[in-house]
Write a structure and sequence with these properties.
Keywords: Disulfide bond, Plant defense, Signal
Number of domains: 1
InterPro entries: Osmotin/thaumatin-like_sf, Thaumatin
CATH superfamily: Thaumatin
Shape: globular
Protein name: Osmotin-like protein
GO biological process, one term: defense response
Order of helices and strands: HEEEEEEEEEEEEEHHHEE
Helix content: 10-25%
Number of strands: 15
Organism: Triticum aestivum
Distance between the termini: 24 Å
């Protein structure tokens, strides 16, 4: 699951009043595959946000795809699917991030574990965009989120390390890893063990009761800018006014 704090923050920042379309600077979303292997990016809009680019596409190694961002408030997530191959019945089955065997996810989310870029576009009174990196659902591919030509607080946020190389044994997902070797992804503690405490459910579903675990501490030590558990600090999202481009780079 994505961080409730991040999702709540992004949702509450969406405008309660309409921004005039003419007031919004055109924005481009760019997805870059800097990996040594192909990926199949997936895109899922939040409730009420439309599907972009059919929800997914193929992206060869060392290539990119740019497309216009919506000219109105939009929020959602972008992730990489890896180790994909056609299967019987014309489906596309992926070792990580699979979205029901589809090439175009069509609004479906990806199977965990997967590293997420989470964004909220065109909100607030100054055409702000917020973004963050989440490993709450675990990790499959390193990524960075970079805004270009924006005003205000516009840092690059990233989880760049390949955590499949350092993932604790009890969190490892073993499959045909795209870069070679046997570890294709790294589960979160919640995904691996499913307890209310690790998943911040039930009596643990509050900032006071949901605390870091040794598993989220592992992710935080490797990727300090990322959200690592459900009630991780919301200060890790940043706001950038009127960026002309938001770039999500995998293996960067």
């Amino acid at each position: 699951m994505a961080s409730p704090k991040l999702l709540l923050l992004l949702a509450t920042l969406l405008p309660s009043y309409g921004l005039l379309l003419a007031d919004l600077a055109p924005m481009t979303l760019t997805v870059v595959n800097n990996c040594a292997y192909p990926i199949w990016p997936g895109i899922q809009g939040s409730a009420g946000s439309e599907v972009l680019e059919g929800g997914g596409f193929f992206l060869p190694s060392l290539s990119h795809r740019s497309f216009p961002a919506p000219a109105h408030a939009w929020s959602g997530r972008i992730w990489a699917r890896t180790g994909c191959a056609p299967s019987a019945g014309g489906q596309l089955r992926c070792a990580t991030g699979d979205c029901g065997g589809r090439l175009q996810c069509g609004g479906l989310g990806g199977a965990a574990p997967a590293t997420l870029a989470q964004v909220s576009l065109h909100h607030g009174g100054d055409d702000q965009s917020s973004y963050g990196v989440s490993v709450v659902d675990g990790f499959n591919v390193g990524l960075s989120v970079t805004p270009h030509e924006g005003r205000g607080n516009c840092p690059v946020l990233a989880c760049r390390k390949d955590l499949t190389q350092t993932c604790p044994g009890e969190l490892q997902v073993r499959a045909a890893a795209p870069g070679g070797g046997g570890v294709a992804a790294c589960k979160s503690g919640c995904l691996a063990f499913g307890t209310d405490e690790l998943c911040c459910r039930g009596a643990y579903n509050s900032p006071a009761a949901c605390r870091p675990s040794r598993y989220s501490d592992f992710f935080k030590s490797e990727c300090p800018q990322a959200f690592t558990y459900a009630h991780d600090s919301p200060s890790l999202t940043h706001q950038c006014s009127a960026p002309r481009e938001l770039k999500v780079i995998f293996c960067h």
